[in-house]
Design brief:
With 849 residues, the protein is mostly helical. Helix content is 60%, strand content 4%. It contains 35 helices and nine strands. Helix 11 packs antiparallel against helix 13, helix 17 runs antiparallel to helix 20 and helix 26 packs across helix 33. It starts with 10 loop residues before the first helix and ends with a helix. The N terminus is likely disordered.
C-alpha cells in the first residue's frame, strides 16, 4: 500500500526557492507526520503508558466532553419528562393516603370515566360462588343410622316388656333413660299402654318400617327440620310412607310418628375432598367483575368508612401510588434512568455523530415524553382491555427510523414498550408494542417511496394482532368475540402509526435537517432544478459529478455505508460552480483558460468561492443538512497548489494558508469518500485528456522532462495512489471515521471502477476510407513538461511554431483533432497543438477545482 510511503520530490519542486521560515515549518510538519507514524509501535511496546495516555486524551478531548455533556442533557430532560408524565398528580388530598378501615377525611370524586376489572369485587364473587351449597358433596352416614335404629328398637323392647308385666312395670319404665331421651308425651305413653296386643304389634311393626323409609332418604344437616315437618304431615295425609301406614287409624298413625320422630337425624356427612374440587371449579368459572365509574361520581364520601373497593378505585386512578410509596417513585425513576442510559450508550457506539444533531435529539425526547403521556392515559387506566391497542407506539420507532436510521429506531421502539409493560403490569402490551415498532422500522428501513409507509402500517398491524392473539392463547382465556375486535383495533393502530410516521417525515423532516432515503431519491432525479441547471450551464461539471457519484456510491456500498447519501451528495458537491461556470476548466471546452490572465490570488478566490456559493445555493433550495455539510467539506482544507506555485513563480510573498480551502475537513465517512472520489475522478480524467494516461493508440502524446529522456506514461493506479497519499499526508482524513483498511478498500474500488470507465478504445484507423483527402490530418505531438520557472507556451505565444510538432498523418473529418473539428473549421484558443500542451499543464488545476 502506497498511502503512507514518502513521495519523491519532483525536480520542479526542488528548484523552487522558499523562505527559511516556510522551509522550517514544512520540516516541522514532516517531523510531526513521521512521529505520528511511529507513534503506534512505541505505544505497543509500552502497554501501561498506552492506558494512561488514552485516559489523559479522554479527559482532555473537548469533543468527547461535549458529546458526554449532550448525552447527559438529553438523558436528563428525557428522564424528567417521562417521570413527570407517569407520576405527576394534579389534585393531592390527604384522603388518598388513607387505608381501608379509616374514616374518609374528604370526598373522593372520579376524575374521569373508568372501567376496570375489580380484583376485590371479583374475589368476592368467587368466594360467593364457592360457598354456594350446591357445591357441597355428601356421603351416607351408616354409623349414625345404625345407632339411631338400635336406640329406637331398645325403646320398642322396653315398651313391649312393660305392657306384658303390668301397670306398675309400665310406670317404672317411664323414668328409664331411653324413654326419657325419646321425649315421648304422657298422653302417647298412656295410649301405648291401652293398646291391644294386636294393635301394638301393628304399631311397632310400622315404626320399624317408617324409620327405614325416612332414613333411606338423604337428610343433610340443614334439611332435618323439613324432613320432620314432612313426617308430621303423614299423620293426616299419608303419601310417601308405605301403604300399611295408611291402613292404620289416625290414632295409631300418630303413635307411629311419635315413636319414629325422636330417632330421625341427619344421615349425611360432608365429603370434604369432593366439595373442595367443586369450590375450585366454581371460583375458576366466575367471570371478572367490572367496576364502572363515571366522571364526577363520588367514590367515597367524607365521614364514611373507607372500604377496600374504595382504595382499589383510587389506585386505579393513580391517586395513591406516587404519593405514599416513595419506593414506587424511586423504582419508576430508576427503570427509566436505566433505559435511557442504555439508549445513550447504544447511540454512542452505533451512531456517535447523533450527539451533534440537537434537533433530532429534541425530537426523540419529545416523542418519548408523548408516548409516556399516552401510556398514562390509556394503558394505566384500561386494565389491559383492547383500548391500549389504539396507542400508536410503533409510529415513534417508524418516525425515528425514517429520520435517523434503523439502529436508533429499534432502540427507541424498545423503550416505550418496556415502559408500557411495566406501567400497565402487562407483558402482553410490552410484546405487542415492541413487535409492532420493530416490524414497522424494518419495513421503512431504506424505504425509497412513500408507499412504504402504507406497507409499514399494514405490517405493524398484522404483527400486533398476531402477538396479541398468541399471548391470549398462552393465557387460555380467548373469547371468539374479541378476536374480531382485536383485529380492528390492530388495524387502526397500524393506520395511526403509519400516519404519524408519514406526518413526521413530511412536515418535520426538512425542519429537522433529516436526510432520509426518500428525500435522497427525490434529489437524485435528473429533473431536480439544480441538476437541470447544472446540466445546462455547466455540462462538464455535471458529467464530472455523475462520475463522482458513481465512484462514491460504490465505495460506500462496499464499506456498508449510506451509498445513496454518497451518490446524491456527489451530484450536488460542485453546484457552487454555477455562479461562474466558465471560470472552471471542466466547463471551458476549447476556449482559452481565463485564469491565464488573472492574478493567482484572484483565481484562488474564485476557486474557493464555489464552495461558499454551493452552500448558499444548497440552503436556498432546502437541501438536507448532511448534503450541505458534504458540499462544505468535500475539499477539506486542501491547498490549491497550482495557483500557489504560480504565485511563487511570480515572486509573490504569499502564505500557503491563503491558498487552502476554508474547510472543515471531512467529518464523516461519506464526506471523505466524496472528497477522494472527486479528486481521483478529476485527476484521472485530466490525465486522460492530456494524454498522460493512454486509452488507445491515437493520439500519442509523449511527455518529456526538460533535458531528459522520454517520461513513461502514467497509469490510473499511480494517479489514484497519489491522490490518496496526498490526502492522508495532508491530514485531510483525520477528523472522520475512515480507517486505513477502509481507505485501502476504497482505493482498490476506485482503481477498478476508473479503469472500467477509461478503458482502452479500439483503433479504427485501419477502417478509414482511403478516399479521404490529405486535408484531414492529425498531429501526433510530444509535449514537454515545463519546470515552474519556465512560462507555459500558448498558441499566441508561438506554441505551434515551437518545434514540438514532429509529424502529420491523415484521419477522417468526423474524428476530432487539434486542427479541425469535423467541419474543417479552424478552432480558436486551445484548439491547436499548443492548446494540447496547455491542457497538459492544466491537469493539476482541474484536479484541485
Amino acid at each position: 500500500m502506497s498511502l503512507l510511503k514518502k513521495s519523491k520530490q519532483k525536480p520542479d519542486q526542488q528548484k523552487k526557492t522558499k523562505s527559511p521560515s516556510k522551509t522550517k515549518s514544512k520540516q516541522n510538519l514532516a517531523e510531526k507526520d513521521t512521529a505520528e507514524l511511529k507513534f503506534t509501535p512505541n505505544i505497543k511496546r509500552n502497554g501501561s503508558k498506552n492506558i494512561w495516555l488514552k485516559l489523559l486524551i479522554n479527559l482532555t478531548d473537548r469533543s468527547l466532553l461535549a458529546r458526554r455533556l449532550t448525552a447527559f442533557i438529553f438523558a436528563f430532560f428525557s428522564l424528567t419528562g417521562i417521570a413527570i408524565a407517569l407520576l405527576w398528580q394534579v389534585d393531592v388530598k390527604a384522603v388518598y393516603k388513607q387505608s381501608a378501615g379509616e374514616v374518609a377525611l374528604d370526598d373522593v370524586v372520579a376524575p374521569r370515566n373508568l372501567s376496570y376489572s375489580s380484583k376485590i369485587l371479583t374475589d368476592e364473587a368467587r368466594e360467593l360462588n364457592a360457598d354456594n351449597p350446591t357445591n357441597n358433596v355428601y356421603k351416607r352416614d351408616e354409623v349414625s343410622i345404625s345407632n339411631q335404629r338400635n336406640a329406637m328398637l331398645t325403646v320398642l323392647d322396653l315398651i313391649t316388656a312393660a305392657r306384658s308385666t303390668g301397670p306398675l312395670a309400665f310406670a317404672s319404665m317411664k323414668i328409664q333413660s331411653q324413654i326419657v331421651n325419646a321425649r315421648l308425651a304422657e298422653e302417647d305413653l298412656s295410649a301405648l299402654a291401652s293398646l291391644s296386643a294386636g294393635d301394638w304389634d301393628s304399631v311397632s311393626a310400622e315404626v320399624r318400617s317408617t324409620f327405614n323409609t325416612v332414613m333411606s332418604r338423604q337428610i343433610i344437616p340443614g334439611k332435618l327440620s323439613e324432613e320432620l315437618n314432612r313426617l308430621n304431615l303423614e299423620v293426616s295425609n299419608p303419601s310417601s310412607l308405605p301403604t300399611t301406614f295408611a291402613q292404620l287409624n289416625i290414632q295409631d298413625r300418630r303413635l307411629v310418628v311419635a315413636l319414629v320422630r325422636p330417632f330421625i337425624v341427619s344421615n349425611a356427612i360432608l365429603d370434604i375432598e369432593a366439595t373442595k374440587r367443586n369450590q375450585i371449579l366454581a371460583r375458576e368459572s366466575t367471570q371478572s367483575v367490572t367496576q364502572n365509574l363515571t366522571k364526577g361520581q363520588v367514590i367515597v364520601r367524607k365521614g364514611e368508612l373507607i372500604q377496600p373497593i374504595h382504595v382499589e378505585s383510587m389506585e386505579r386512578y393513580g391517586l395513591r401510588n406516587s404519593l405514599n410509596e416513595w419506593t414506587y417513585i424511586f423504582g419508576v425513576v430508576g427503570v427509566i434512568a436505566l433505559l435511557l442510559f442504555l439508549l445513550c450508550s447504544y447511540i454512542g457506539v452505533i451512531y456517535n455523530t447523533l450527539w451533534k444533531n440537537y434537533k433530532i435529539l429534541g425530537f426523540i425526547t419529545f416523542s418519548m415524553i408523548l408516548a409516556a403521556i399516552g401510556i398514562r392515559l390509556l394503558v394505566d387506566t384500561s386494565d389491559h382491555s383492547l383500548l391500549p391497542y389504539l396507542l400508536p407506539i410503533a409510529g415513534i420507532s417508524m418516525s425515528v427510523t425514517t429520520l435517523i436510521n434503523i439502529n436508533v429506531g429499534l432502540m427507541v421502539a424498545l423503550i416505550p414498550a418496556l415502559v408500557a409493560g411495566l406501567e400497565g403490569k402487562s407483558p402482553e402490551l410490552m410484546l405487542v408494542y415492541f413487535c409492532g415498532g420493530l416490524v414497522g422500522a424494518l419495513t421503512l428501513w431504506k424505504a425509497e417511496r412513500t408507499i412504504y409507509f402504507a406497507f409499514a402500517g399494514v405490517a405493524s398491524a398484522g404483527i400486533q394482532f398476531l402477538a396479541g392473539l398468541f399471548y391470549t392463547l398462552i393465557l387460555g382465556n380467548i373469547q371468539p368475540g374479541n378476536i374480531g375486535l382485536l383485529l380492528i383495533f390492530s388495524l387502526v393502530n397500524g393506520l395511526l402509526s403509519a400516519s404519524l410516521a408519514f406526518f413526521t417525515f413530511s412536515v418535520l423532516g426538512r425542519a429537522l435537517g433529516v436526510t432520509s432515503p426518500i428525500v435522497l431519491m427525490e434529489l437524485s432525479h435528473p429533473n431536480q432544478p439544480l441538476l437541470r441547471q447544472l446540466m445546462r450551464d455547466a455540462p462538464g461539471t455535471y458529467h464530472h459529478s455523475m462520475l463522482v457519484g458513481s465512484l462514491a456510491e460504490q465505495a460506500a456500498e462496499r464499506l456498508e455505508g449510506d451509498s445513496l447519501l454518497a451518490r446524491v451528495s456527489a451530484y450536488y458537491h460542485d453546484i457552487g460552480k454555477l455562479e461562474c461556470p466558465n471560470y472552471f476548466i471542466d466547463n471551458q471546452g476549447n476556449r482559452p483558460n481565463i485564469h491565464d490572465t488573472l492574478d493567482p490570488r484572484e483565481s484562488v478566490r474564485i476557486i474557493k468561492r464555489h464552495v461558499e456559493y454551493g452552500i448558499e445555493l444548497a440552503k436556498e433550495h432546502n437541501l438536507p443538512e448532511r448534503v450541505v455539510d458534504i458540499i462544505q467539506q468535500h475539499h477539506g482544507t486542501c491547498v490549491i497548489s497550482y495557483f500557489y506555485n504560480k504565485a511563487l513563480q511570480m515572486g509573490l510573498d504569499m502564505e500557503e494558508l491563503d491558498f487552502r480551502y476554508p474547510g472543515p475537513k471531512p467529518q464523516t465517512k461519506i464526506a471523505a469518500l466524496v472528497m477522494l472520489a472527486d479528486g481521483c475522478e478529476a485527476a484521472v480524467r485530466a490525465n486522460v485528456q492530456s494524454g498522460r494516461i493512454l486509452t488507445g493508440k491515437t493520439p500519442e502524446v509523449q511527455v518529456i522532462k526538460p533535458e531528459s529522456d522520454l517520461k513513461k506514461s502514467l497509469s490510473i493506479t499511480e494517479v489514484v495512489n497519489k491522490i490518496f497519499d496526498d490526502r492522508v499526508k495532508d491530514n485531510q482524513l483525520d477528523e472522520c471515521d475512515l480507517t486505513l483498511r477502509e481507505i485501502e478498500r476504497t482505493r482498490q474500488q476506485f482503481i477498478e471502477q476508473l479503469t472500467s470507465i477509461y478503458h482502452p478504445r479500439v483503433d479504427y484507423n485501419e477502417q478509414l476510407d482511403t478516399k479521404v483527402g490529405a486535408e484531414n490530418k492529425i498531429v501526433t505531438a510530444t509535449v514537454i513538461e515545463l519546470s515552474p520557472d519556465k512560462p507555459v507556451p500558448t498558441l499566441t505565444e508561438g506554441a505551434a511554431d515551437s518545434g514540438y510538432i514532429e509529424k502529420e498523418s491523415t484521419m477522417p473529418p468526423e474524428i476530432d483533432n487539434p486542427k479541425t473539428n469535423g467541419n474543417n473549421n479552424q478552432r480558436k484558443g486551445t484548439g491547436g497543438i499548443g492548446g494540447a500542451g496547455q491542457r497538459i499543464n492544466r491537469v493539476q488545476q482541474n484536479t484541485e477545482e
